[in-house]
Fold this sequence. Notes:
single chain, alpha+beta, DNA Polymerase III, Chain A, domain 2, four-stranded antiparallel β-sheet, elongated
Amino acid sequence: MNKQTLMGFINRFYLGGQTQSAPVKSTKDTLSCAFINSAKSCVGDIVLAKNGIGDYEMGLYEIQDLIKLISVLDGDMDVDVKTVGEVASQLVLSQKNTKARINYGLARLDVVQKKPDLSNVPEFTLELKLDKKFISTFISGKSALSEVATFAVLADGKEAKVVIGYSSTTQSNKVTIPVECGKVDSFEEAVLFDADTFKEILLANRDCESSTLYISDKGLAKVNFKVDNFDSTYILVAKTTVD
């Protein structure tokens, strides 16, 4: 496995440190992770095809430690999983050209956070088209407003926009991004989501040419990115207040 591919997989659920533990499942063909971030504001399913390492279920705990260890290596790597009985206990990565090796201790599955089963998912009545320009603008806008915690989605039945730094009561610094709609609804109020989480999602999937952000005025958003062998789906839970 290539280091860049493995890091691409991990970063899609690590989200810049927002997810500290997660279960990873491997088959002979795929790696997958069904996760929830530490703030419980986002759940997701990440699938990497054509890069399985065998039939294992692994618990990643303190994921930043794994990232630091992987940074020691470069290029193509051999991947092995050590077990105690039937339990995966260590992830071993070896750099092919130098034979340098790192060992990462795996956690029990019962101590890592797992994605909950979702029920009663409402209908998504607004569809926003995300392209590379939107992704770049949102990332830059959130970086410019680093202390702003939320972004708002506003729709009037004809058009929609995303506003970083939205406030209905005060004059504030903000970035407004008009967005092309595939399906338009009218929201009585702005729907607010975690801006830091969405920025990290976009950063992890910025190689994607286009996607669609599905919004429900009941307080959920869903987005899927497909690029190369990655298939990544995220569901965001709305925030109730502007921080």
